[in-house]
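Backbone-to-sequence.
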């Protein structure tokens, strides 16, 4: 049987204790980063959908067609509003952030994007 000195016995188990303290912080950080990435992707998709809808509206397409085209580019569950004021058309796309982790902190978190375009004058 080998005897350990007092210095060697004091370090036993410290790696496990340090891991037990650091692991929850790492998991929380990873969750925040993944949810943030999901929010960024959803916002970029909303922006793309709003710009696409505004381009279609600028060409003189109907509001129904603008909504249909924007809905194809938008994330799941997106709400699309098209407002026509004179020659200006504004498309606003709002969508919930997808909680792909299943942990729930994204509940109620929404992102949105807005694009405005001027309708082209159509000459016969």
């Amino acid at each position: 049987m080998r005897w350990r000195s007092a210095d060697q016995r004091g370090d036993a188990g410290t790696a496990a204790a340090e891991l037990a303290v650091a692991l929850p912080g790492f998991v929380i950080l990873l969750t925040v980063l993944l949810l943030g990435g999901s929010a960024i992707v959803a916002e970029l998709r909303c922006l793309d959908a709003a710009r696409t809808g505004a381009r279609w509206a600028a060409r003189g397409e109907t509001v129904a067609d603008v909504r249909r085209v924007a809905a194809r580019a938008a994330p799941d569950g997106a709400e699309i509003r098209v407002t026509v004021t004179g020659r200006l058309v504004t498309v606003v796309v709002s969508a919930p952030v997808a909680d792909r982790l299943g942990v729930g902190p994204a509940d109620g978190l929404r992102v949105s994007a807005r694009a405005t375009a001027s309708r082209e004058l159509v000459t016969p």
